[in-house]
Specification:
Elements lengths: L1 H13 L10 E4 L1 H7 L1 H38 L5 H55 L3 E4 L15 H8 L2
Parallel strand pairs: 1-2
């Protein structure tokens, strides 16, 4: 989403747009359209389910670590110094594994989200471009980005884009 906003802003600034009578400008709340797209809703549900799966895996790793830590602390006075050192190394390795798993989970979730959102964003952009071409708009601004659109008096193509997307 941020990329789309920045591209639109860069286009506006880079071209040095001045309000001219022949230029037609419209706006749309991209976030609002996205929230209504079935593909977006499905992607969000899939990502939530994946997150919950990873969360359970992560919590299980943490539970095993804390259970072992408590056990080792209780038995520390009953085992040899060498055994305590071995156990300490084992716990350090478990901590490292937990941190690596957390990083892997975050990276995997970000990658999956990017993959799913790319197709959805591409579909939305094609619909916006098609409506803009049909209606003769030179520029379409994202009104969901408050810093990008200060005043939105032009036509809102929200309903046209929804119709183009079939929602």
């Amino acid at each position: 989403m941020k990329h789309i906003k920045f591209i639109l802003i860069a286009l506006l600034m880079g071209l040095g747009i001045q309000a001219q009578a022949q230029q037609k400008i419209a706006h749309i709340d991209i976030q609002k359209v996205l929230a209504e797209m079935p593909e977006y809703k499905q992607a969000q549900a899939e990502l939530k389910q994946l997150y919950q799966t990873y969360q359970k895996e992560f919590e299980q790793m943490q539970k095993e670590y804390y259970d072992k830590l408590q056990k080792y602390q209780q038995e520390a006075g009953q085992v040899t110094q060498e055994e305590n050192q071995r156990r300490a190394q084992e716990l350090q390795q478990m901590e490292k594994s937990i941190l690596e798993a957390q990083q892997r989970i975050q990276e995997d979730l970000a990658k999956k989200e990017a993959e799913k959102m790319k197709n959805i964003q591409d579909k939305l952009m094609k619909a916006i471009e098609a409506v803009a071409a049909e209606k003769g708009y030179d520029y379409v601004l994202d009104s969901s980005a408050p810093s990008a659109v200060l005043v939105a008096r032009g036509p809102d193509i929200y309903n046209d884009v929804k119709k183009k997307l079939g929602i």
